[in-house]
Amino acid sequence: MRATDAFRAAFGADPRTVWHAPGRVNLIGEHTDYNDGFVLPFAVPWGVTAAVSPRDDSTIRLLSLQSPGDPVVISNHEESRGWTRYVVGVLAMLGDRVRGADIAIDGDIPPGAGLSSSAALEVAVASALDDLYDLGMTPMERALLSQRAENDFVGMPCGIMDQAASALSAEGHALFLDCRSLGSRNIPLDLAAHGMTILIIDTRAHHEHAGGEYAKRRAECESAARKLGVAALRDVTDLAGALDLLQGDERKRTMHIVTENHRVEALVGLLRAGAITEIGALLNASHLSLRDQYEVSSPELDLAVEASLRGGARGARMTGGGFGGSAIALVADDRLESVKESVSSAYAERGWQAPRFLPATPSAGARRIS
Ligand code: GAF
């Protein structure tokens, strides 16, 4: 295994534990997590492997096969930079429950595709440390710790979806998560049995200011909830009445969050009824709402969705935070080539960089692999 080999070469011994944590795509329920709402992500087949041994001192020695060079040595958490912050943040959140560690990281999540490589990195490291120090955390506690590392150490005000998907997903299933109660259920997502594929369309386009826009959306939702006198937009039961009390962007954001929560529940209902082929309309409605009400789509994402529908997809939507990254399309296997061709030629016509296509197979969550 590459992470183990790299660990041995750099640190001169075998790692005490090796964990793998996957990235995710979100089937539906976008930006609902930090509004105490519902999400339905699933783990993808790609992820992050962390080979880890504890140390007797508080030093962290860290290497990544994706950032060649000597191990980074960190003796003070505040020294960490770039990708190392996601790892050091997890150690920082564990505080005096752990000491230092030697860590080798390997990952195969397509970079920049919006498939949550940072959550996978956090969860892989959190799981390995929990295991090493016998901390007795549940998978959800590992996810929450990882989210805290991202919120409080890295400074990204994300919700719980990505870390929970990485920590809790089960092969062949999507993860239905209530982001308030943190109750979750694995929902069977047997695409092959229905001759369907969920195709990831990586637009390979990234827009500046995505982080700032994310924080702005979150603040708008919190402000709208305050004006409506509810703890979170999840609590809005009378949408028409709520919209009468709001204006401008806050009105639009509320419209998206309230309707998106209903779409998640409806989609779960269809999956439970074995009606995967019927979920397309909900995916399309989610995309339009993210584009027009939440305003987090991009020209590249919109074109990926439109062109895949023209090519015969049953439904399509942007997935993840938005402003670039990936879209997903639900496609009958006999239409896959026509969907890819439709999207590729639409991008080529505009002179845009060719998108990348990846089939998304619902995969297992974080696990010890050695
Ligand atoms: C990003 C965040 F990290 C998630 O918490 C979630 O809010 C998502 O955007 C939007 O649904 O992936």
Automatic annotation (TrEMBL):
One of its GO terms (molecular function) is galactokinase activity. ATP binds at S64, G112, A113, G114, L115, S116, S117, S118. Pathway: Carbohydrate metabolism; galactose metabolism. The active site is at D162 (proton acceptor). Keywords: ATP-binding, Carbohydrate metabolism, Cytoplasm, Galactose metabolism, Kinase, Magnesium, Metal-binding, Nucleotide-binding, Transferase. It holds the Pfam family GalKase_gal_bdg. It is found in: Cytoplasm. Residues 86-168 form the GHMP kinase N-terminal domain. InterPro entries: Galactokinase, Galactokinase_bac, Galactokinase_CS, GalKase_N, GHMP_kinase_C_dom, GHMP_kinase_N_dom, GHMP_knse_ATP-bd_CS, Mevalonate/galactokinase. It catalyses: alpha-D-galactose + ATP = alpha-D-galactose 1-phosphate + ADP + H(+). Substrate binds at E30, H31, T32, D33, Y214. HAMAP family: Galactokinase (MF_00246). Catalyzes the transfer of the gamma-phosphate of ATP to D-galactose to form alpha-D-galactose-1-phosphate (Gal-1-P). This is Galactokinase. It comes from Nonomuraea guangzhouensis. The gene is galK.
